[in-house]
Structures are given as structure tokens and as C-alpha cells.
Amino acid sequence: MLNERQRAIVKSTVPLLEAGGEALTTHFYQLMLSENEAVQPLFNSVHQQTGAQPRALARSVLMYAKHIDDLSGLGDLPAQIIHKHVSLQVQPEHYPIVGAYLLRAIREVLGAEIVTDEVIDAWGAAYGQLADILISAEKSMYADNAQLEGGWAGVRRFVVARKQAETSEITSFTLHPEDGGKVVAYQAGQFIGLRLLVNGKEQRRNYSLSQAADGRSLRISVKREAQGVVSSHLHTQVHEGDVLEVFAPAGHFTLDDSDKPLVLMAAGVGITPLMAMLEKALAAQRPTTLIHCTRSPDLQAFRTQLIELAAQHSHLQLRFSYEQEAAPENTEGVQVATGMPDAALLQAWLPVQRDVQAYFLGPVGFMRLAQTVLRDAGVPKAQSHHEFFGPAQALAA
Ligand SMILES: NC(=O)C1=CN([C@@H]2O[C@H](COP(=O)(O)OP(=O)(O)OC[C@H]3O[C@@H](n4cnc5c(N)ncnc54)[C@H](O)[C@@H]3O)[C@@H](O)[C@H]2O)C=CC1
């Protein structure tokens, strides 16, 4: 446990973290990923290059220091981290490695004058406390995943039963367990982890499940990213009949079980987990408005399927926006707009009723817009949900 003096020291480093946290975490990742092979597969190199991962960690470290007296102030952050860790199969032995590099980076970046032995000792204790919390929560999630019907621990082998191009950029992979057993009834909105060998190097990634649980299969829908090592590998090297190694579903961006009207707002490939939520909601006869903003109709994944679903379910309202192209003829029952979505458009597309549960996902600019629109429309904060595919970012300015 941290003592009072150690907590005070950690808090006293808040201004330093505010000013130099990103330099610190950038150095931390550079050191750790160049020297330690054991943790390399857990991190996506693109997120290092873009700085997204160091930024996310800097934000987390700063939040932790600020709330060291009362960790409830961290809100959702620990849950986000724990679910991400579980989907990538982070283990207790990874924590001392990360801890040692973090302390080394603190010393090297902030300098020996500021970072006395007492400061290192306080941060060491703070890190130890956090590690204990995460390790114990992750341990119980691993145990739960193993106990659930159709659940599993560690890696389970799945055969690619179907590989289907949704658009020129997004391909779906439907996976069946090689052992022929059941597949856990995961929650709509959750993701799985994949462990792959790409050019002889292990990589781990999570991908949202793009269909509701059916007890037999999993489906992911992957956008091929220009720099994406794993997404390119999946698109070009993985074929029907191949086997993928899968970690059990995790994630807490999940559909609530209320009967409140639902608003699903997606941009681009952000539609993937919302497809699972949509299927679940339709099965429960829940009134649903689904907004999908893409660059053009031919780059819109699940367009045909969505239109078919709307034809079958009168309580589903569809609104599509296309950034680049004039909208195609209004399909029956679907409202369509052209251009970059703005607040006025999204506002007009929300249902009149504001006591809704809203889930939004897309590129960060879209998420900022969606969050603002929902807030200004009076949707309670606790009923407005989002997540990030990669490292979390701040949405509020
Ligand atoms: N929650 C997350 O973490 C997500 C992250 N992404 C990231 O975004 C990247 C691009 O994803 P794509 O599917 O290719 O999306 P995209 O670049 O094709 O954009 C899709 C649509 O989002 C809307 N949009 C984009 N920026 C906007 C802004 N500033 N304001 C309002 N609307 C905006 C536009 O309608 C656009 O057509 C992905 O490669 C991924 O890295 C995408 C989806 C979810």
C-alpha cells in the first residue's frame, strides 16, 4: 500500500506530467520495445509511430497521479484498460517489465535533480498498487471466461469458415472453433484478440465482433489500413480454411439491457460492433435509429444488409450520409444526405425522444461531433457511450 508521503510525492509530480508526460511515455515505449521482446507483440507499432499509444499512456499516468487519493475518480479508465489487457492476454509477468521501464523513463526524462530516490520509490509503490489492482481484476476475468459455457482460457483455434469482402477496404472473417464446441454468448459490442505470426514475428490485435452471438461462430470485419501489418496480413494471407488463434471476447462497450430507444451512430468502419448491437436490439423489438456516415455508398460496409433489416423491422430507422458522392436515390425508408456530417444534420436525425441509450464510434473527429450533439440534445451523459479501437483519446476539448 502507498503511504501518505508517497501519495503526496506522486501528486507533486502532476505538473511535471502535464508538461512532459508525453515525452516520458514516448521514451518509455522506445526503451521497452527496443530492448524487451516479451512485450513487443502486445503493442501495435503504428500506434507508436502516430504517437497515439504514448499519448494514451501519458493521459492514464496523469489521471492516476491526480486521483491517487481516490481511484474512483478514474471512472471508466481501469475497466477500459482491463478489458483491453484481457483481450490481448496480458499476464502478471508483464507488469514488472513495464514497471521497471516506466521508472527508468521517469528518471531519464525528468532528470536526476527532480527525480530523487524518494520520488522513484513513491512512483514504484504507486505502480505496484496499480499493477495489483489490474492483475487481480484480469485474473478474475480470465477465470470467468474459462468457466462460461463456450468460453475458454488462453488461445483457442478457430477455422476461417468464410472470408467475405464487404467493400474494397473491409473484409469479414467468420470463424468456427476447430474443436467443434460451443462459442460463448459474448455481449454485443465486445471484441476478440488475435495472435498471429506475421513475417516470423508475433503480433496481437483486437477486433470488434460484427455480429451478435449465435453460440457457434465469431465474425470480425477488418479494414485494411495502409500501414497496418496485421490488417494487410489478414486481407492478403489469410484464407478460408486457415486457422486463427483467438483470445476470448472482452470489452465493456456493450449494449445495455434496458428497453430505452437506441441510437447507434457510426462512421466508416466504426459500424462493426454496432452491427452486433443492432442485431441484438432488433431481436428485442427495441426502437432503433442507426446513423452511418461513410465516404461513399460503395465504401459503406453492410449497406445492403442494413436496408434489408429496415425492410423487415419497422422500428429500425436508417440515416446514411455520404461525404464524397451525391447520395443515391433515397431508398425506401432511408434518409440520405451528402457531404461531411455536421451538428445540424446529426441533430435533425436524432429521435425526438431524448431518453435514449446512444452508442457512437468512428474516426475521432466524428466522435467529438457525436458526443457534442448528444450532449446538446440533452441525452444524459451516462447514456452516451463510445470507445476507441486503438489507444483511447480525449474527446472533450
Ligand atoms: N473508435 C475508434 O477508435 C475508431 C477509429 N477509427 C479510425 O479512423 C480511421 C478511418 O476510418 P474509416 O472507416 O476509414 O473512416 P473514414 O475516414 O472513411 O471516415 C468515415 C466518415 O466519418 C465521418 N467523419 C470523418 N471525420 C469527421 C469529422 N472530423 N467530423 C465529422 N465526421 C467525420 C465522415 O462521414 C466520413 O466519411 C480508421 O483507420 C481508424 O484508425 C475508425 C472507426 C472507429
Known CATH architecture of the largest domain: Orthogonal Bundle
- Classify the fold: give the CATH topology of the largest domain: Globin-like
Return the domain count.
3
Reading off the top of the CATH hierarchy, the class of the largest domain is best stated as Mainly Alpha
State the CATH superfamily name of the largest domain: Globins
Organism: Comamonas avium
Domain Globin: 1-139
Family: In the C-terminal section; belongs to the flavoprotein pyridine nucleotide cytochrome reductase family.
Catalytic activity: 2 nitric oxide + NADPH + 2 O2 = 2 nitrate + NADP(+) + H(+); 2 nitric oxide + NADH + 2 O2 = 2 nitrate + NAD(+) + H(+)
Folded structure, characterized:
By secondary structure, this protein is α/β, with parallel strands linked by helices. The protein folds into three domains: 4-147, Globin-like (Orthogonal Bundle); 155-250, Elongation Factor Tu (Ef-tu), domain 3 (Beta Barrel); 262-386, Rossmann fold. It has helices at 4-12, 14-35, 45-49, 52-66, 77-88, 94-110, 117-147, 229-237, 271-283, 303-312, 343-349, 364-376, and strands spanning 155-165, 170-177, 191-198, 201-208, 218-223, 243-250, 262-267, 288-294, 316-322, 334-338, 357-361, 384-386. The strands form two sheets. Strands 4-3-6-1-2-5 form a six-stranded antiparallel beta sheet. A six-stranded parallel beta sheet has the order 10-9-8-7-11-12, sandwiched between helices. Strand 1 (155-165) and strand 2 (170-177) form a beta hairpin. The longest helix is centred in the first third of the chain and has 31 residues, at 117-147. It is globular. The mean pLDDT is 95. Bound molecules: 1,4-dihydronicotinamide adenine dinucleotide. The site of 1,4-dihydronicotinamide adenine dinucleotide has 22 residues, from strand 8 and helix 12.
